[in-house]
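Rotation project, supervised by the postdoc (A.L.). Task for the rotation student: set up a whole-complex structure prediction and record inputs and outputs verbatim in this book. Inputs entered:
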Amino acid sequence: MSTVLEAKHINKYFKKPVLFHVLKDINFKINKGEFTSIMGKSGCGKSTLLYILSTMDTDYEGELYLNNELVTNNTRDQLSYIRNKHIGFVFQFHYLLSEFSVLENVMLPAKKLGEKSFEEIEHDAMQKLSILHIDHLAKKRASRISGGEKQRVAIARALINNPSIIMGDEPTGNLDSHNSDNVFNIFKQLSDEQGLSLLIVTHDEDFAKRTNRIITMEDGKIIS
Amino acid sequence: MTNWNVILNIAKTHLLTKIKQTATAALGVTFGIGAYITLVSFMTGLNSMLDDLILNQTPHIHIYNEIEPSKKQPVATYDAFKNSFNVVHSIKPKFSQKKIHNALPIINYLKKDENVKGAIPQIKSSIFYIAGPIELGGNLTGIQPLDEAKLFNFNDYVVEGSTQKLHNTENGILLGAGVAKKMSLTVGDRVQISTIKGDIFPLKIVGIYQSGIADIDAIQSFANLKTVQRILGEAENYITDINVKLHNIDVALPMAQQIEQQFNLTAIDINTANAQFETGTTIRNLITYAVSVTLLIVAGFGIYNILNMLIYEKMNDIAILKATGFSGKDVQYIFMSQAIIIGLVGGLIGLLIGLIFTNIINTIPFETEALPTVETYPINFNGWFYIIGITFAMISTFLAGYLPSKKAKKIDPVTIIRGQ
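Outputs recorded:
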């Protein structure tokens, strides 16, 4: 089975207010199609790790591979391109561009990538929205829909460029149990039906238990 | 790789959803540019009017015989006193003729020079206007009316009658407006003048001359060259002044110096004679530009302020754009293009408003005794002002947008996303 994401000897220090060793020699792999969750107490460094894996944080030691290619020490523009093409994000808060319509929000990363024509992108976006059963919201302003719906729009946006991996930072953390279930089912479905790789940081034990694999962290180390 | 369609689309959405702020920022630029165009057109219009007032009727080089004491007193030429210290009391001006020696050949010589547009003779003489027992002192200048009109816009100052009439009437006179008023004379009347020697001549008034400078109008009159020669009892080669108009005013000084040396006459060039006008023009231009630049800088700060606020408001948007693959440069371009759109739209409207304003000013009546030829406020319509205006608008908005957008470029998405 091929590897999507691999971390080798990742170390990270916070330099302010005092020098603090956050991540201590992190090594792991995520295989294609795997649905992985990262668990751990607050402050154990799981979010910090996720942002390093997402290539947004470049201030670390060690090596990071995406699709078996080294991405550590790439320029910021190269990293932007990698995020655009290979990584989809879902955050705890919904982070939609509130002045744009739902459809425009979903289309934006694909327009940035610029590999397809406008019509193809629009078609893809509508398709992603209908997978998530929110195609009826397409023309609404992003600020006019509910929290659960926003999170699904965010997932649709993460999917638009058919990324190698979806990363989530507590994507259900701000949702009620009904919507949490909904979001989990969507992830599960994507994983099972489309063979998508997922890496989700969560506090929610029920959520984590239903994933393929749980990585547990404590004090900046992976313990299981 | 930059996808301008996406960037401009985002910039457009930002601007349109904050239409009030956008309009305020653009209005700042509009106001600045509009004021600049109006000010600069009006000011330079006024400047060139004032310059014309003096320059058009002033010869570029004025040649005449100066009455002055000899630079070298006779005693200095006497060898016996060569090594002594000579003191001469009560020096008198050297007796010489008022007329320019060989004036007609000099004029012909000057006319052949390729720098010279025209050289025309004048005779200046002091006379008295006689009204019954009253004698008013004055000047009568002999001119070639048609040449004066052609070279020195003399027609502009003839408020009644015409130079053509003067040319046609042998005993005609163009009477100064002040003199005419004092003596209650109008065109068609006769006026008697007396020379210093006491000869009296009746002349027919064919026109009224008004320079706009009251002191001159109260004494100055014009007649044909030949008429004046006859009144003075002089020959046809009696000429006291030669006025030269050049194609290029910059050669006036060297040419005046050359004429002085060559013909042993006094030659004054226009820049020496009217140095203060150059200074006035420069200072008025300086004031215009200082005010306009201040207005545009204020407008620039307005844009800076609004973009800064916008960037704080859009912190989350910036973070999410960066997280989904927009590079720092893309984000910078989004905000830069907003500033440039504001500058371009505001600037173009400003140009339009400036054009409308100057057109309105151009129709406002402006009549004054001093300027007989001017009927409305003078406006200088010059395409360059518009080019400078829009360029300045673009530069100032570019700078005002550059600094905030640089900040947006540097925003670290991780800090924003984790900070929630």
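Student's summary: Chain B has two domains: 4-55+277-419, 61-68+98-272.
Supervisor addendum: The radius of gyration of chain B is 34 Å.
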